[in-house]
Amino acid sequence: MEIALAVSDGVLRISITVAKPTHLTAITSTRSITVNLSRSHGIDSVTSQYVLFAAMSGSVQTVVIESVLMTLFAAAAVAGFKSSAWIVVVALAGHGVFDAVHGHVIENAGVPAWWPAWCLAYDVGAAAGLAWLLRHRLVTNEVRP
Questions:
Q1: Measured between alpha carbons, how far is 56 from 62 in angstroms, rounded to an integer?
Q2: Is 60 in contact with 46 (CB distance < 8 Å)?
Q3: How far apart are CA 137 and CA 98, in angstroms?
């Protein structure tokens, strides 16, 4: 099995190729999944929740602070998709650390008490999963135009 990631014009294409060898030839089947990155998938999707919580709290200052931080993580996601998926791994893990200290550095009354722990678990799990896939070469780390 081969899994490949490609990004072009804001679209992530995941192709999975499975080859079944027979005694005479190899039969190959390829399936593709397309994800439009402009629809907030990945890191920016997770970080945007803090902006939503800030808006729910009614604090414009908190919305601005959370929006700036979300923009930084979104930039890391774009950089990762354009250069190296390892940047996405680091950004996801970094967001997990951010979740652990979020309540101590940013006052956001809209954040549910359970959210930081849930988000930390998701971020670290996603980072570990992507790192495992990259390390075992189950996804490619090459950038295609």
A1: 10
A2: no
A3: 28
What is the three-class DSSP state of 138? coil
| pLDDT > 70 fraction of the chain, expressed in percent and rounded | 65
3-state secondary structure of 1: coil
For 125, other C-beta atoms within 10 Å of its C-beta total 12
The β-bridge partners of 21 are 26
Residue 139 clears pLDDT 50, i.e. is over it: yes
**pLDDT band at residue 103 using 50, 70 and 90 as cut-offs:** very high
Among candidates 111, 122, 1, 97, which has minimal Cα distance to 62? 111
CA pair distance 139, 30, nearest whole angstrom: 14
Phi, psi of 7 (to 5 degrees): -125, 130
- Residue owning tokens 């996603």: 126
Average pLDDT for 74-85: 82
CB 12 within 8 A of CB 32: no
Is the pLDDT at 84 greater than 90? The verdict is no
Rg (alpha carbons) of the chain, rounded to whole number: 18
